[in-house]
Design a protein that fits this description.
NAD; 4 domains; D-isomer_DH_CS; 60s Ribosomal Protein L30, Chain: A; Rossmann fold; EC 1.1.1.95; seven-stranded parallel sheet; binds nicotinamide-adenine-dinucleotide; binds 3-phosphoglyceric acid; single chain; six-stranded mixed sheet; ACT-like_dom_sf; 18 helices
């Protein structure tokens, strides 16, 4: 019986569906073209969701998706998925960033050539029998030596640049992450601003994600910076262009035309103003990634990523989580277990309503990527007060922020008696409580509780007894446990350097009854008694 149910709600390649269904742990339902209300009704039954750009994964859908753990986007753009709501609900969002790069770059390039040479309107006229008239009407634009501005020099922008250079175009690129060294390597001019890239450009092509910052990145003012007779190409997202401004710039004759694969609203309405245009215009229905090759790539990639996430815990190409490959998962597995135990210990023993959790790493571990280890400690800390599955590794930082709890990480070079040490400290004002652990062999051990040195396992049922450090206390505790028929599996004793306070960590074989806890708590010299299942 499959453990995880995955809904594929947009068409992906058959091979992708097969790759997902091949895992015995996973059962797959393909239901494409669902209306929003139909999706809302069934999404609660699924642990995984696979989409392209059609399914809108809104905050409402995520609120109804009570079992959802992961969304796989078979493609690049994730603007159809409410990222914040996904994170708040603890749902991992992964995309497949590389699978459709070439197909999309080729489509964008095709669009540029088609707009320059009026391929679409000329074709339509030929079919209508207007061969001669069309020969006169559709004079083209040569691209050789023209200046091309690329906004967004990521995967697709870079591939577009290579093709444009083969056509002897001069390429100028703007991307906030493009360095001079990379620009030199790609033989493109580096623009410091979008305006600088657009000034004097004959063609612009957009390859940036749609975000609140990039919405209408191409507007009236920026179109005006381009040369008269310039072309606009957009194979990224419709919202990047102010379509009203574009229509006005084409009507005025400043911009010659446009080549668009994407629209502000998809599908665009039948009376869309750009549909009135004819010369140097070509419009396609979001076909950039629609090749057999790209669809197989992204379909299989998304299937493998979701399968690995459910089966091995591997996290690849997540946009709201650090990645975690299988090898790293295996290497840091014991530290994740240790961090979980430290978080639980702090929840039980540390101050309530803390201001911050500080996780510090000593030794070799300090050189590794410990982000997920810290997140695991935070998740375990928060889970203790929300045991109903509301908190997980994806949403723990967001929940902590809502609570005003800071998570800080530090690496410490000072030597300790352990080759590696993880210290988790909960702070509330001046009040601090710390616990620490290490890995011995492959086994996580707790080695410090509130500055007292212990050695205990991270799994089991424990009784913590803090008492004045005076003779006879261990006997009192042992006798009380014996009288209550609670067997001791392990016992570890620690005391402060000034010998005023002692801590006994007792691993027990059965749940200590309330009567035993009350008896211990009322025993003179016993300061605190707590039980904890780790
Ligand atoms: N039409 C289609 O079918 C289709 C197919 C694939 C991708 N896309 C779209 O194309 C976009 C780009 O895809 P990609 O694979 O090249 O992504 P990418 O992440 O490799 O590249 C995006 C680049 O944009 C840059 N960027 C971000 N903000 C910017 C800004 N304000 N100005 C300039 N550059 C900025 C980033 O630094 C990055 O280098 C995707 O986000 C997606 O929306 C469309
Ligand atoms: O962002 C993408 O990957 C493209 O826009 C492709 O979208 P699609 O999968 O809906 O064709």
């Amino acid at each position: 019986m499959a453990t995880y149910r995955v809904l594929v709600s947009d068409p992906i390649s058959e091979k992708g569906v097969e790759a997902l269904a091949a895992a015995p742990e996973i059962s797959v339902d393909v239901k494409t073209g669902l209306k929003p209300e139909e999706l809302l009704k069934i999404i609660g039954d699924y642990h995984g969701l696979v989409v392209r750009s059609e399914t809108k994964v809104t905050a409402e859908v995520l609120a109804a998706a009570t079992n959802l753990k992961a969304i796989g986007r078979a493609g690049v753009g994730v603007d159809n998925i409410d990222r914040k709501a996904s994170t708040d609900h603890g749902v991992i969002v992964m995309n497949t960033p590389t699978g459709n790069t070439i197909s999309t770059a080729e489509h964008a390039f095709t669009l540029m050539l088609s707009a320059a040479r009026n391929v679409a309107p000329a074709h339509a006229e030929v079919l209508k029998g207007n061969f001669k008239a069309a020969r006169k009407a559709y004079q083209g634009i040569e691209l050789n030596t023209k200046r091309l501005a690329i906004l967004g020099m990521g995967r697709i922008g870079t591939e577009f640049a290579k093709r444009a250079q083969a056509f002897n175009m001069t390429v100028v690129a703007y991307d906030p992450f493009l360095t001079q060294a990379r620009a030199d390597e790609l033989k493109v001019e580096l623009a410091k601003t979008p305006d600088e890239a657009l000034k004097g450009a004959d063609v612009v092509t957009l390859h940036v994600p749609l975000t609140p910052d990039t919405n209408h990145i191409l507007n009236t003012e920026r179109l005006a910076l381009m040369n008269k007779g310039a072309l606009v190409v957009n194979c990224a997202r419709g919202g990047l262009i102010d379509e009203v401004a574009l229509k006005a710039a084409i009507d005025s004759g400043h911009i010659a035309g446009c080549a668009l694969d994407v629209f502000e609203v998809e599908p665009p309405p039948n009376d869309h103003p750009l549909f009135e245009l004819n010369k140097h215009v070509v419009l396609t229905p979001h076909l950039g990634a629609s090749t057999n090759e790209a669809q197989e790539n992204v379909g299989i990639q998304v299937a493998e990523q979701l399968r690995d996430f459910f089966v091995t815990g591997e996290i690849k190409n997540a946009i709201n989580m650090p990645s975690l490959d299988a090898a790293t998962r295996a290497a840091i597995g014991p530290y994740l277990d240790l961090a979980g135990a430290l978080g639980k210990l702090l929840a039980k023993l540390g101050p309530e309503n803390p201001d911050s959790l500080r996780v510090s790493y000593h030794g070799e571990l300090a050189k590794k990527d410990t982000g997920l280890v810290s997140r695991t400690a935070l998740t375990a800390l928060l889970e203790a007060s929300r045991p109903d599955g509301q908190v997980n590794i994806v949403n723990a930082p967001a929940i902590a922020t809502q609570l005003g709890l800071d998570l800080t990480e530090s690496t410490i070079n000072a030597k300790t008696e352990f080759s590696e040490l993880v210290v988790a400290e909960l702070r509330k004002g001046e009040d601090r409580y710390r616990v620490a652990g290490t890995i011995i062999g492959r086994s996580p051990r707790i080695v410090e509780i509130d500055r007292l040195y212990v050695d205990c396992a991270i799994k089991g049922r424990f009784l913590f007894v803090e008492n004045d450090d005076r003779p006879g206390m261990v006997g009192v505790v042992g006798t009380a446990l014996g009288d209550a028929s609670v067997n001791i599996a392990n016992m570890d004793l620690a005391r402060t350097a000034d010998r005023t306070r002692a801590l006994t960590v007792i691993e027990v074989d059965s749940e200590p009854p309330t009567s035993l806890l009350e008896k211990l708590r009322s025993t003179p010299g016993i300061l605190r008694v707590l039980t904890l299942d780790l």
